[in-house]
Amino acid sequence: VIEDACQAHGALYRGKRAGAIGDAAAFSFYPGKNLGSWGEAGAVSTNNDQLAEKLRKLRDHGAEKKYFHLTRGLNLRTINFQGAVLSVKLKHLDSWNDRRREIAFLYNELLEDVKEVVTPYESTFVKHVYHLYVIRAERRDALRSFLSERGIDTGIHYPIPLHLQKAYEDLGYVRGDFPNAEEAALSVLSLPMFPELTDDEVERVAKTIKEFYS
User: Model-level pTM?
Assistant: First the structure.
């Protein structure tokens, strides 16, 4: 089992941290993530010593040591500076995630009575860290324009389902094969979400959404 933990830094599933559940897990440290570097970076976590050794070779041109290449590989090394940045920011990850959760709960409360909006659901056995706060919204594109006109930026994560991406057209899928994914791509909207967001700002976003649907 390989975990995609790229947006799950600090998340819990049945008491286990994301990245410690499967045989290996991939983390992204893109600057916008909950734990972000100052540039492109990432990591793989695993408890499998053999897999870890193979991954170390793959990230460094397949080399076991300098100039001795045992297999073909890539240059996927993270520079020391990024590691230093991440080491400092890691100390704040839990408190930043706690604030993200507070913001998410406030959004949930404020948007609870807006029937045109579906807010995120969190099971009792998980702890969401809300890298994104994504709603499902009727007339999504019109709502997004309405918010933008009032200075509220939003995102769409993601606008094109994987099976409709050109990169995977050789698999032969067509529109209609995965209707849930296609419907989600037409209705999802990511609202502002970052630890520094104030309660007043969250309330303004929710108030503007209510204004649109009133």
Answer: 0.93
